[in-house]
Write a structure and sequence with these properties.
Radius of gyration: 33 Å
Distance between the termini: 132 Å
Shape: elongated
Number of domains: 4
Helix content: 55-70%
Strand content: under 5%
Number of helices: 28
Largest sheet: 5 strands, mixed
Structural class: mainly alpha
């Protein structure tokens, strides 16, 4: 039998499939992780060693909340524009206490912000390292970000921005990676990071168009991914906000029934709260109460200049001590830096090579510019996080230039030297003119004045201030550092009509001094500046002085600028004087003497409290009919006093 002439075909070996690890952008060798961690530690230590002592108005309010200083601190945890910040701060403060550190709320917030900011710098190093593959470029630009003016300033203060910038940085890096290597798991990660960034600050909602573009750009299951992103991020943001609106602020509760409903009134009330108009729940009032809303096309230019101010300190905040030399150095540095950045960006065609990052940044910039030109324009706080993609793109341009063979090595070195000189000026001047001055407590006049007050008052007392002009920060400085609580003119007349405000001030003084509460007043309440400020509420200085005519102002101490701290003492013959004397007699057990002083108070000046205590005096004197008579008058003046109602029931009335 003949063998078949057909030859068997040799089987070709199968080509092994190559799987792409979609998370490969986040794999780094051990040396890079160590460098990033070292940068984090170095930057964090610098931040913590130079905390801001120019305590910011809002920061003091947040500090009081996070350390549970006030009885109603839980009700103040959620803040419309940055819902999660106080929760972060309170948790961090609790952690401090658990570790045994007795730091106050402000210091806890400063340390937390230092950690968040240093973490951003560490992540930024790894991001630049991945973009450029140049270690020295990543190190230089990471430290430049760390010691740019606004980034450094907010890292050492107790303001709300560092947690927001951290989550935004995470979102940006995840989105950049997703556009290169898309995956479902990255959509989930982006959704979580985006949601957390919006909870950290409402302004981050304007990064959503960039995220939407990035998901569409990937081209892979874009509708499915968009839907998943919308649902996940919407739940992360929506659930906390709805809970706050429904059960905390109660803006979703119908004013008539108290039930949670969606109607025109509850939606409008909720919107007012979301845009920062807390307690302005007036359905017939559509005006913007929040003074930061300032729509004007000219602010488009304002914000371009503000981005520059976020990098180079020029004294725009009023904190620090900007010098003429520093301004000149910053102007030269800024000019060189900006011109080189634009030239290299165009020359090296970075807009093509880093297309994903550039388009994401451009979309974010346009949407954010439209918003910030409408809300609080000219504030570097709203722009300093944009330096993350700006510096990333510049780092890519610079790295490509240094690798280019189109330029002689000597030219590249000269350009690099000029750029490094411009960069070196930035942290040096920022430190000398801004960060160092605000780290010295003696430069904070409000704080030093608060310490002077503390040294000369009885803890737990009350102090009267104007709250106008330079006195405005004292509303938060005094309760934070002086051990007394302020009554400020501006808060009386902002929330009350003139007549009601004056009556409230008069009644508060009478009640407090009658009860023996130490009451003080700063002489600035009678100053020309206060007189001018009161005119906005049609209140005259004569009307203020009339309230205080019933009291002697006994000088306790003089401040170095001549301001006087006075003790407010009722004049003999006034209602407060008689009430204070009556309570002194009552506490001493001299009930007939107490009755004598109580009845000396003019009838029109008596409070339910006076009749209530007179009833107890007569009870101790076994004169029950007179006791019941006075209790009835007190009950008619204050029907809600349950203790008084029970006393009357007990005695058969």
């Amino acid at each position: 039998m003949k063998k078949s002439s057909k030859k068997k075909k040799r089987a070709h070996p199968e080509v092994p499939s190559v799987s792409v690890d979609v998370w490969s952008d986040f794999y780094f060798q051990k040396p890079e992780i160590l460098i990033a961690f070292s940068i984090f530690i170095i930057v964090c230590v610098v931040y913590i060693l130079l905390p801001c002592k120019m305590f910011y108005f809002d920061g003091l309010m947040y500090a009081a909340i996070v350390e549970a200083r006030d009885a109603n601190w839980k009700s103040r945890l959620p803040w419309a524009n940055h819902l999660s910040f106080n929760y972060y701060g309170h948790a961090f403060w609790r952690f401090f206490q658990w570790l045994g550190f007795k730091a106050d709320g402000y210091r806890a917030l400063q340390t937390m912000n230092a950690l968040f900011s240093a973490a951003v710098v560490g992540l930024f190093y790894l991001f630049i390292r991945k973009l450029t593959e140049k270690r020295y470029v990543a190190i230089i630009f990471s430290f430049l970000l760390a010691f740019s003016y606004s980034f450094w300033y907010r890292a050492v203060d107790a303001q709300v921005y560092p947690p927001s910038v951290f989550w935004l940085c995470v979102t940006l890096i995840l989105l950049w990676s997703f556009m290169r290597l898309p995956s479902l798991s990255k959509v989930v990660a982006i959704s979580v990071a985006t949601g957390l960034s919006i909870l950290a600050h409402q302004g981050n909602i304007f990064f959503l168009p960039a995220v939407a573009y990035g998901i569409i750009y990937s081209g892979k299951a874009k509708l499915k991914n968009l839907l998943l992103f919308a649902v996940l991020s919407g739940l992360i943001v929506g659930i906390p906000y709805i809970r706050v609106l429904a059960y905390h602020e109660r803006t979703l509760a119908d004013p008539a029934t108290g039930e949670i409903v969606l109607n025109k009134t509850t939606i409008k009330n909720s919107f007012n709260w979301l845009r920062g108009n807390a307690n302005d729940y007036t359905p017939d009032d559509d005006k913007y109460v929040n003074q930061y809303w300032a729509p004007d096309p000219k602010h488009l230019l304002t914000n371009f200049k503000t981005v520059i101010n976020a990098m180079w300190y020029t004294g725009q905040y009023g904190y620090g001590s900007s010098t003429k030399t520093g301004k000149i150095m910053m102007a030269v540095s800024g000019l060189i830096f900006i011109l080189l950045a634009i030239f290299l960006f165009i020359r090296q065609k970075t807009y093509k090579k880093q297309k994903e990052l550039f388009i994401v940044f451009a979309i974010w910039w346009v949407s954010y510019m439209a918003f910030v030109s409408w809300f609080n324009p000219g504030n570097p706080d709203y722009w300093y996080h944009h330096w993350i993609p700006i510096l990333a793109l510049f780092a890519c341009s610079f790295s490509d230039f240094m690798n280019s063979e189109n330029y002689a090595l000597s030219v590249r070195r000269i350009v690099a030297g000029v750029l490094m000189g411009a960069i070196a000026v930035i942290p040096a001047v920022n430190f000398k003119d801004a960060i160092l001055p605000i780290s010295k407590i003696e430069n904070n006049e409000n704080y030093m004045r608060s310490l002077w007050i503390k040294e000369n008052v009885v803890s737990g007392g009350i102090i009267i201030i104007s709250g106008i002009g330079w006195s405005n920060p004292q509303k938060v400085y005094i309760p934070a550092f002086s051990g007394v609580k302020p009554i400020a003119f501006d808060l009386l007349f902002v929330f009350m009509p003139k007549v009601q405000g004056l009556a409230t001030l008069r009644n508060q003084l009478e009640i407090l001094t009658s009860q023996g509460t130490p009451v003080y007043a700063l002489s600035e309440i009678f100053s020309k500046e206060t007189e001018e400020g009161l005119k906005q509420w049609n209140v005259s200085m004569d009307e203020i002085k009339e309230v205080f005519d019933r009291y002697d102002l006994k000088n306790v101490s003089d401040y170095k600028d001549g301001m006087k701290l006075n003790r407010v003492i009722p004049k003999p013959g006034g209602a407060a004087y008689f009430r204070n004397s009556a309570l002194t007699q009552y506490n001493a057990g001299n009930f007939s003497g107490a009755i004598k002083y109580f009845t000396s108070i003019p009838t029109q000046s008596r409070y339910f409290f006076d009749y209530k205590v007179m009833g107890y005096c007569f009870l101790r004197m076994n004169n029950i009919p007179e006791a019941v008579k006075n209790w009835k008058i007190a009950a008619s003046m204050n029907p809600g006093d349950k203790e008084l109602a029970e006393t009357l029931r007990h005695y058969g009335q």
